[in-house]
Request: fold
Amino acid sequence: MMWLAVRQALGAWLFSRHNNGKAQRISLSTSRKEMIQRMYDVAIVGGGICGCSLLYELSKYNLKAVLIEKENDVAIGTTKANSAIVHAGYDPENGTAMAKYNVEGNRMIKQLCEQLDVPYKQIGSLVVALSEDQLETLKVLKQRGDKNGVPDLKLLNHEETLVLEPNLNPEVKGALLAPTAGIISPWELAIALAETAVKNGAEVLLRSEVAEIQKENGVFHVSTGDKTIQSRFVVNAAGVLADKVSSLAEKVSSFTISPSKGEYYLLDKNQGNIVSHVIFQCPTELGKGVLVSPTVHGNLIVGPNAEKGEAGHTGTTADGLDYVRKLSVLSVPGISFRDSIRNFAGLRANSNQDDFIVGESKIQKGFFQIAGIKSPGLTAAPAIAADMVRMLEDAGLELNPKDYFVNTRKVYRFKHMDAAEREQIIVQNPLYGRIVCRCETVTEGEIVDALHRPLPPVSVDGVKRRCGCGMGRCQGGFCGPRVQEIIARELGLPMEQIPLDRDGMNIITGTTKQ
Amino acid sequence: MKNYDVIVIGGGPAGLAAAIAAYENGAKDILIIERNHEAGGILNQCIHNGFGLHYFKEELTGPEYAGRFIDMLRENTKAEVMTNTMVLEIGPDKTVYAVNSENGYMQLRAKAIVLAMGCRERTRGAIAIPGDRPAGIFTAGTAQLYVNIHGYMVGRRVLILGSGDIGLIMARRMTLEGAKVLGCVELMPYSNGLNRNIVQCLNDYDIPLYLSHTITDIQGDKRVEKVTVSKVDENRKPIKGTEIVFDCDTILLSVGLIPENELSRSAGLTIDKRTNGLVVFENMETSAPGIFACGNVVHVHDLVDFVTAESLKAGKSAALYAKQEKEVPSDIIEVANGPGVTYTVPQRLRTERVEKFAELFFRVNNVYKGVNIVISSGGETLAAFKREHLAPGEMEKIVFPKQLFDKVKDKTVTVSVVKE
Amino acid sequence: MKELICIVCPKGCHLKIDEENDYKVTGNGCERGAVYGCKELTNPTRVLTTTVKVEGAAIARLPVKTDGDIPKQVLFRAMDEINRVTVKAPVKRGNIVLKNLLGLPINVIATKTIESV
Reply:
């Protein structure tokens, strides 16, 4: 097991390799000097799936890369609140960047998940037609997919569809089967990529909101309020805030982002088997419909709608949830919404361009965009990252592969162990014998391990995203206080300072009897 | 593999009583498996009084009630309590798979098992309250743990959703610890809590109770900032234009309890959709021979005294089963709920195994005054019991003589509320 | 005339109490209701249950209660006094943690046995 120390630097957490199990603080003055003197080759703004994918790709080479994230953890925006689908690639129009990256990303993501021990299942998807007209749409989708290079697409008739998915609306006319579609844990992929990048020497700067980007003598000065980072190249992967970040470098951003909000239901595991594929509705002039899918953790996800959104606002509405419920039962009539365990909303970073915006700014040389990454952005992210590395090389970044690059990662999940493995791991570390989350069977050993990984969580939800505790039917009612205690103990912080998620999301307001 | 006569899963009031009764009825090797660091279950955090009026004929606090049973277990039995231990699965042949730090991964075998896992709280997600998702939203029980056991305050300006007893108790508790409780919001036109709690937890502190209201929006970026409450119509749908906005930093949810039956499901036991609890026979045996259940894992109780009574029965039955005495063959009668009744426990009666009297617990679906509880079969009334007052929040009980079974047709009896 | 909901039993009778007529209670279903109604208006009292700080134990708070009823109007003052108490583990159920609360002939007692760690 690799033990790493946590260093607090300038109000941000800067992580690097160390051989000490305990958290420690380095004085601010030392860190400040160190930081200012450091010159990076690439600075990435935004710790979502795109930023983390790029950091991972860059960490394969002998260069200095840093990811700058405004929150206290990576994967805290759109990456944690989406449909969690690995798309096959029949949806994007032929010849678009979306089509190319989707199909490439679909291939890469499978491999990455295997290497980095990230939950992923290739369960295939069905687009279901509920009318004769929609059968025509399926044909169009199939043709488009074939041209995009999506393998093994197949049109199914009424009977074939119901054989695959007996709980679909019995009136279903047919479906488009895409066997390469899958389901994934998006935040775990982003965390795994960032963790592994850090292990390979890349840096992550948390709690750092970029306020200014200046270019002087061919070098970018990226300021985050109280500190400045110097870098030869800057990549903007700021999601729904990408236009704001872009305007810092381009003065007037070459694009705008108009986020679209999607609301979801997450249902209990007893609903997780109602379908075995990702079930999409056929797109119509009214919209794309809502999907129904098992999640990689065994639940059922239902959603999203599409409403005008606003950065930082991910509240759900009664009308939105109502819409999702009513529309979803058109394709899968038997969903029991009594078994809802959580509702959430996420933002899609829709831009005013039709396609993804991936490439160098025409206004500011050395400033690169990964922007407007709406669906299928999650699937596309690894392919975008790989392409971005090539673009950076074209712009002058030297790529010398590392002699020793760690490209694997192992997470111990007690729940998935057999009896012998369980016995053995408890002997090695008794904390694995203490179940903290009863709904998801997560042990204290797993939580402590996560808290000492290269990019340790600092919040209850940060632990949840890494270990799964609190994701079950009681939604952390039982384990939440215990997880909070373990974080406080391991990080040497008072309970009051452990937030639910982002900084300032305080769970407790003090002690009694004061 | 270690063998026991009876393994009791859960060391709360149900498990403690079951273990004591099992010992008193001849079981020798008894093990209670408890996931917390001590026995007593949820009573440890229920520091208010009002427990024990039926069983001990005096008013005790939760920790006192639990403490007395822990003492009885220690002093009068040889039952073993294994704390900090989680049961992961119940396998065939009554194998119990459990884990803790000290003993590691264990496979234990029992002649009889008593399930006493209690219940858990319904959450925000279960009732789909729309709005932002900031910090400051707790189930009442989680807040109770923070405040009463760990000594942390969970907020300063509090709104409570749901007028179940835990919500009411927490309204008073937060007030006494210096928080401002702005109100208690209840979807139904009546409270599910005991009158005594409405009076002593809300009225005593001038906390308003908003009946036929619900939360329709939550606002807050980091911590709860504003909560919108709306009146609801007779179909429980919010009425536009009736919104009241509260400035508060905390919401406590007391919106129902669900029997904790994940283990039971994995063991393939039959669950009653009405209670979300286990289907049981007259002696608290579940659908699997030799596996018994009691307390909130069967149905959510409002009084711990009734949990104790039910658990003593389950413990005794488990001990008798463990002795492997020959079982009496019997007809099975199904108990159905008629108009006004939401569920009954037990759901199945084996006529030959009922001792002199059969006991039925049930809940009603509305507030009733001056009605009869009627037991009928094949359209014919077998017995009627007069009741002055019935409410959904109060569990009811009827006891009738075994002879009644002679008149049962089609192996079904129905329990109904009939207006006079 | 004051109105109260009776809490003696779950029926919840709506009591009417006439302060000007020797606290005569009407609306009660039984005699216990009359006694409750009268007392609630003339001398309302409560048992106070709360916690005190505890040191050297696995938990941070020890549950306690008053060993008898105290006047309803002194509940918050009683809390202030109890909140200043800190006890050291071990403590046995029934131990007195505070004598003569607010000078009343009432003690605050532990409702739980806790061991020291």
Observations:
- DSSP finds eight helices and 28 strands in chain B.
- The first strand of chain B starts at residue 2 and ends at 9.
